[in-house]
Every structure is written in structure tokens, then in C-alpha cells.
Design goal:
Elements lengths: L12 H25 L17 H21 L4 E3 L2 E3 L1 H22 L7
Length: 117
């Protein structure tokens, strides 16, 4: 008999909307970061990118992290019990990153970094 791993529980429309919200904020951060690379007044705070990343490095990083976040979201289960508490790891992951990206985009905006193309 062939063993298959337990399914991660079906992906829902709500999962898609959370992922779309995350992606929109992530892309806004991406565009802000690209804009910041063109202005010597701004120093990148992401230690992975370094203080003065190239546009190519920014594009590679944000493309990879968007794909990685989407993959992790899909693979995380929708239901789990942690220390006797029922949780939705997928939703926790998505909501946490929506909060992080929202905070970063707002912070960038407040210091004058706009979304550029």
C-alpha cells in the first residue's frame, strides 16, 4: 500500500484573499525599495539586501520571497492543535506577514519613499 502524506487541508477563497493582500503589500514594498535604490538619501534596512542594493538584487530578492511566501502559505495546514489550542497556522502566517509588510510600507511612506515604477 502506498503511503501519502496528510493533506494540508484545502485551499479556500479566504486563503486566496489573504495571499492577494499580502502580495499587494509585498509588491508595494518592492516598488518602494526599487525607488529607494535611486535616491542616495535612503539606506535600505533589510540586512539581506544590504544598505545600497542594486535594482537587480532588489528584484531577485522580492521575486524569490513572494514565491517562497506563497509556497509556504500553500503548504501550511489550515488546522492544527498547538498545546491543546486549535489554530490555523496558514492564517497566522499570512496575517503576520500582512502586518509586517503593511508596517514596512507605511514606514517607507512616512520617510518619503513612494511607490515607483
Amino acid at each position: 500500500e502506498r503511503h501519502t502524506p496528510a493533506p494540508t487541508q484545502q485551499w479556500t477563497t479566504t486563503d486566496t484573499w489573504y495571499q492577494v493582500e499580502y502580495a499587494a503589500l509585498h509588491i508595494a514594498d518592492w516598488l518602494q525599495t526599487r525607488t529607494g535604490t535611486q535616491d542616495p538619501r535612503f539606506i535600505e534596512k533589510n540586512p539581506v539586501l544590504g544598505e545600497r542594493p542594486s535594482v537587480g538584487a532588489v528584484d531577485a530578492y522580492f521575486a524569490a520571497t513572494l514565491a517562497g511566501h506563497t509556497l509556504v502559505s500553500y503548504l501550511l495546514p489550515a488546522r492544527a492543535t498547538v498545546f491543546g489550542v486549535k489554530v490555523n497556522p496558514r492564517r497566522v502566517w499570512q496575517a503576520a506577514w500582512i502586518g509586517i509588510e503593511g508596517s514596512v510600507v507605511a514606514s517607507n511612506y512616512n520617510v518619503g519613499v513612494r511607490v515607483g515604477f
